[in-house]
Design a protein that fits this description.
By secondary structure, the chain is of the alpha+beta class. It has three domains: 104 residues, no CATH class; 104 residues, no CATH class; 423 residues, 3-Layer(aba) Sandwich (Rossmann fold), CATH 3.40.50. Helix content is 27%, strand content 25%. The strands form twelve sheets. Strands 19, 20, 21, 22, 24, 26, 27 and 30 form an eight-stranded mixed sheet that branches. One of its GO terms (molecular function) is metal ion binding. Secreted tripeptidyl-peptidase which degrades proteins at acidic pHs and is involved in virulence. This is tripeptidyl-peptidase II. It holds the Pfam family Pro-kuma_activ. Its EC number is 3.4.14.10.
Length: 684
């Protein structure tokens, strides 16, 4: 194989010979190029000539997404014409520059994201055809994000002078402005990309794979895992002068296998007649009903007001949409006043009410628990598309194409709306293994959640239903064994809700996900609580053994917990009575209680609770019921959601977390006691 350097040397020699009389007086002719893609180092070639003059000028090939430094020549990259310095002329300049551009990679491009290996479980099918269509989103960087944490501390920590003085949309955009899109759009247009649309802090565009491959110095391909297929790449580059303007480009390196936290299709069971009869007699040992929850969490004596201003919301991904008819039947089952919910569609989401085609189990569980516990507080479902395969339309660059990574579009949408148009509590019951989410992407999404928190909105996430982990192998190319934390539950700006089981008393549920993040350091609000666990509730021998699988300096999760499974919750799916559960049930349950706490504060003339964690760790734990029995398990080769063997899983003997006094990585700080929490928040 001939090296790029050798090709460049030959080409320049030929051009110089052709133009010898014009160049004449140049004493040294130097060509600077770079090693083959990906770009790591620069190299130069010198060609000696007669004379005494030497020039050093940058040469641009912007039309091709490349840049070459050529000593002795200046190139006007806008028009791809070569202009020798000191008014020298050169023949065949257009061809000359085009050859330069086609042979050299960009010296001003930097690798922005790169995976060490294709994520575990995925395999390469084929490179995408050059004429295949693709839609991408460029997330423009926000300035001053280094001040986000300190601002959240000021507004969300009880006792601080600014506690509860939440910001509005304009305040957030002023404090954390989005980078200008001018240079980014110019970069796209220089590559002949014309289908461009701005959406909040995103620049969406649609074009062909061929143009994107050249633009990002990459190769997009189709990858498959089971029945899921993605159009992805393992790395991409951007111009170094855009590094401060671009946070990330998606979907690129995020493969993901996002799932509901409950594994509902495997776990939901239709309720037979004799169990239903016992449940009608309020046997909480068989099924968890609304009357059971009122007793368990001490909210039976409180009735919210629909006019207080307190509102609830929940996310629906993976083509899920809650059923109006199922909610109506649920309300009749538990003698609730009739109440519907609103729906907002994001990024091409679809509200499918046809029960023969709809996916609804997760969405139904969310809305039935939010309405069942929090009625009559208004509830909004945010449906964000979608699930691949999807071929985007270049004429609709903002059409549905998140290809199973909806978090970015979802939170950008929320931030684009005024406070008055948003619920103050949002419940999300979805997650990915943290390591399958590129760190750039995870931190971008987490910062967006932090910005949502500044606006007085509480974001709650289910911790997951995989215990310590399921696959338990790294995707960094080493295939090492490790515990598997779940994102977005690991983001410090969410309140992660773990799971319990049994009834009176509750104990830790063995499938409740928890542990320590590998992306986010231990959060300021939990340092004392987590250190107490590490110092007093896990032996030194266990800690030493686990340290090879877990990052004990990372953000600990979950933060709180609620009933998840065994016994199941009684709900309505597809018009029939089912038993279901998981942390996908615990999260909307806890979220509804937070909405009721907001109701109490708003009716007392106070602000909403907003970002909850500083309150929970500093004062709120006193109003929670500590869970000290039970444990979570995992990394044993079995998927806790399906009870089936996981091919190639890492096995970690004796892997488990115990529920202990105080915070622990199974149940967090504990279970809610609504009346105690109500008295606490009204005292602030």
């Amino acid at each position: 194989m001939v090296s790029a350097k050798a090709i460049m040397f030959t080409m320049i020699t030929a051009v110089m010979a052709q133009n010898k009389t014009q160049i004449g007086t140049t004493s040294e002719f130097r060509v600077c190029t770079v090693d083959a893609r990906p770009i790591y180092s620069e190299s130069c070639i010198s060609l000696n000539q007669t004379g005494s003059t030497q020039f050093n000028v940058a040469v641009g090939c912007r039309q091709y997404g490349y840049n070459v430094r050529l000593a002795g020549l200046a190139v006007n990259s806008d028009f791809l014409s070569v202009v020798p310095l000191n008014s020298f002329s050169m023949r065949s300049s257009g061809l000359y520059t085009a050859l330069l551009c086609s042979l050299a990679a960009s010296t001003n491009a930097v690798i922005h994201e790169k995976l060490a290996a294709v994520p575990s479980g995925w395999h390469h099918l084929e490179d995408a055809g050059s004429d295949h269509q693709i839609s991408l989103s460029i997330a423009l960087a926000r300035k001053n994000l280094d001040q986000l944490e300190s601002k959240l501390k000021d507004l969300s920590t009880p006792g601080e002078s600014q506690y509860g003085q939440w910001l509005d949309q304009e305040d957030v955009d002023t404090l954390f402005p989005v980078a200008s899109d001018k240079a980014v759009i110019s970069w796209l247009r220089s590559a002949n990309i014309t289908h461009i649309a701005r959406q909040g802090s995103l620049v969406n565009f649609a074009t062909t794979v061929d143009k994107v491959n050249k633009l990002l110095n990459t190769t997009f391909a189709y990858y498959q895992s089971g029945s899921s297929q993605r159009l992805r790449t393992t790395e991409y580059s951007i111009p170094d002068d855009l590094v401060d303007s671009i946070d990330l480009i998606s979907p690129t390196t995020f493969f993901g296998k996002e799932k509901t936290s409950a594994g509902l299709n495997q776990r939901a069971q239709k309720i037979d007649s004799h169990v239903a009869k016992r449940s009608n007699s309020s046997s909480c040992a068989d099924l968890i009903t609304l009357s059971c929850l009122k007793e368990m969490y001490n909210f039976g004596n409180y009735t919210p007001s629909a006019s207080s201003g307190s509102k609830l919301g929940f996310a629906s991904f993976l083509n899920e949409s809650a059923s109006y008819s199922d909610l109506a039947k649920f309300e009749r089952l538990f003698n609730l006043p009739s109440q519907n919910f609103s729906v907002e569609l994001i990024n091409g989401g679809v509200n499918d009410q046809n029960q023969t085609t709809a996916s609804l189990t997760e969405a139904d569980l969310d809305v039935e628990l939010l309405v069942g516990v929090g009625h009559p507080l208004p509830v909004t479902e945010f449906i964000t598309s979608g699930e691949p395969p999807f071929i985007p339309d270049p004429d609709e660059p903002s059409a549905a194409d998140n290809e199973n990574e909806p978090y970015l579009q979802y939170y950008e949408y929320l931030l684009s709306k005024p406070n008055s148009a948003l619920p103050q509590v949002i419940s999300n019951s979805y997650g990915d293994d943290e390591q399958t989410v590129p760190e750039y992407y995870a931190k971008r999404v987490c910062n967006l959640i932090g910005l949502v928190g500044l606006r007085g909105i509480s974001v709650l996430e289910s911790s997951g239903d995989e215990g310590i982990g399921s696959g338990c192998r790294t995707t960094d190319g080493t295939n090492s064994t490790q515990f598997n934390p779940i994102f977005p539950a690991t983001c410090p700006y969410v309140t992660a809700v773990g799971g319990t089981m049994s009834y009176a008393p509750e104990i830790a549920w063995e499938a409740s996900s928890g542990g320590f993040s590998n992306y986010f350091e231990r959060a300021w609000f939990q340092k004392e609580a987590v250190q107490n666990y590490l110092s007093h509730h896990i032996t030194n021998e266990t800690k030493q053994y686990y340290s090879q699988f877990a990052n004990f300096s990372g953000r600990g999760f979950p933060d709180v917990s609620a009933h998840s499974f065994e016994p199941s919750y009684e709900v309505i799916f597809y018009g029939a009575r089912y038993g279901s559960g998981g942390t996908s049930a615990a999260c909307p349950l806890f979220s509804a209680l937070v909405g009721m706490l907001n109701d109490a504060r708003l009716r007392a003339g106070k602000s909403t609770l907003g970002f909850l964690n500083p309150l929970l760790y500093s004062k709120g734990y006193k109003a929670l019921t500590d869970v000290t029995a039970g444990q979570s398990i995992g990394c044993n080769g079995i998927d806790p959601q399906s009870d089936e063997a996981v091919a190639g899983a890492g096995i970690i003997p004796w892997a488990h977390w115990n529920a202990t006094v105080g915070w622990d990585p199974v149940t967090g700080l504990g279970l809610p006691d609504f009346e105690k929490l109500r008295q606490l928040v009204l005292s602030l």
